[in-house]
């Protein structure tokens, strides 16, 4: 295991046993020699043998750490579990289904080096999505509604690949599905965010854990809640005397 990683790659998974080995190897290939890193997989109480596959990989990949939820808690909780356990000052997240490309992580890191320190989130932007037509259509309208309500100037908040400062993330209000609203929440906290075009790949194995109806029903409630949080936010500069 890396002694003091600069970057922690957090990957939440639920029933993704066939996607785990190739994605881990891609992360290693993208980051070894680029930045000191660790990989933090969070198994959200999978019903298949995802956890066993992860445990088997630990002997081969010294950067890999494995956390396990004793009960299924959802993607946002899994991400937060990984971030809390992470030792890096910056976090990169990836979806566990293999549709995000780990080769984009060094690009996000390079983009960070071009931006001022007040930018705390670099959000992936899937400019060429490889999803079904119905999912692309639903996402397009969801993004339009969200942008109108939250004014977060972010074209794609649903992209799983993101780079953000650990401390800034842990200072955000936590709630289920918060991972879909990170740009708005970061901006609410006074930080800036940048969207970066990234690669997107078709799922080759496993099945999606969401459907359009469930996303829509939950999304309406969450949008109202985040909009309320934004209206109730207060920020001020602080002086130490």
Detailed description of the structure:
This protein has 241 residues and is an alpha/beta fold. The chain has a single domain, classed as Spore Coat Polysaccharide Biosynthesis Protein SpsA, Chain A. Helix content is 38%, strand content 17%. It is built from 8 helices and 7 strands. Strands 3-2-1-4-6-5-7 form a 7-stranded mixed β-sheet, with helices on both faces. Strand 1, helix 1 and strand 2 form a beta-alpha-beta unit. Helix 5 packs parallel to helix 8. It is globular. It starts with 6 loop residues before the first strand and ends in a 10-residue tail after the last helix.
- What count of domains describes the coordinates? 1
Structure classification: alpha/beta
Residue stretches low in confidence (pLDDT < 50, at least 5 long) are none
Give the SSE string: EHEHEHEHEHEHHEH
| Quantity of strands, as a count | 7
Please state how the strands of the largest beta sheet are arranged side by side: 3-2-1-4-6-5-7
Q: Over all CA atoms, what is the radius of gyration? A: 17 Å
Give the biggest sheet. Answer: 7 strands, mixed
Beta-strand residue fraction: 15-25%
Keywords: Cell membrane, Glycosyltransferase, Lipopolysaccharide biosynthesis, Membrane, Transferase, Transmembrane, Transmembrane helix
Organism: Lysobacter yangpyeongensis
Protein name: Glycosyltransferase family 2 protein
EC number: 2.4.-.-
List key phrases describing it:
single chain, about 240 residues, Spore Coat Polysaccharide Biosynthesis Protein SpsA, Chain A, 7-stranded mixed β-sheet, 8 helices
